[in-house]
Amino acid sequence: MDNQDLFSVRGKHVLLTGGTRGLGYGLAEGFARAGARLVITGTSERVFDAAEALAGETGGDVRGTVARLDEAEHVDAFYRQALEQLDGRLDVLVNSAGIQHRCPAERFPMEEWNKILQVNLTAVFRLCQLAAGTMLEQARGGKIINIASMTSFFGSEGIPAYTASKGAVMQLTKALSNEWAGRGIQVNAIAPGYMETELTESMKAYNPGQYEQVTQRIPMHRWGRPEDLQGAALFLASRASDYVSGVTLPVDGGYLGK
Length: 258
Prior knowledge:
Elements: H1 3-6, E1 13-17, H2 22-33, E2 37-42, H3 46-58, E3 61-66, H4 72-85, E4 92-95, H5 110-138, E5 142-147, H6 160-180, E6 185-192, H7 198-206, H8 208-217, H9 230-237, E7 248-251
Parallel strand pairs: 1-2, 1-4, 2-3, 4-5, 5-6, 6-7
Helix pairs in contact: 2-3, 2-9, 4-5, 5-6, 7-8
């Protein structure tokens, strides 16, 4: 096996949630450019525009499907639809959809708490279940990549639900790896560092002091960009990571090491 084949995802069938903007769009772009067959999701028909744009930019096979991950009853139906678009075959699941709400903990609305936990954790678990069922039936194994966070490692301010959900994603990744790694499914996570996305724009507005403090701590002296995650995702989706499972890989410009 040469190195090109070892790291290749060409021809793999990939389902990636949350691919219309931000980190999800960057991840989708990486898979499309690498030759994967890709279905991305979004909460509205905007997903079809994003899929068309990605296909045009990369020359890849990219399709879209609407997925309301905040509605538990819709998760199974959307998964079946996405699997049909992939001709019933799934090699890689990337759980990159996520939401947050910034508010002091003592005033945090319970409706926001429940919505965030549903999207960021419960839907992730259900999709892992569904994907594992498909992969085990295929008897060809597969890769599951969850998107964790810096808040998987430490607490943060003003985002208690997001922090709780991402801490749980890291532990869930370990638990599922323990059950499925021996059956041919590697389950890993990526923990993006502080990234320039719409989700993190709120920090600049609500807590500029924290924003500056974070920037000064990053050894690479900049916030990350969506494309910075592509290499880690392609590695975890390829044969190169066949003996890697249960890991949460920080992609953070060195933040956690300082």
